[in-house]
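Researcher: Here's the sequence for the chain we discussed earlier.
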Amino acid sequence: MKVAVNLDLCVGHARCQDRCPEVYGTDEHWGKCKVLIPVVPPQLREGARLGARNCPEGAITVEEDAP
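Model: Thanks. This is the structure I predict for it:
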């Protein structure tokens, strides 16, 4: 699974980071989402999905692994 953030949409609510700080952080300069682990390991995937779902702007894209 891969995650990415569209910085044009992100306004820095940090809800993603609140839900999964292992995957999402905050850029110190811009105050927007910073993906810490773009390729998410199995043990963090549910948290990464939860973080993406909680983004009010829908700025986070989750690409699931192909079956």
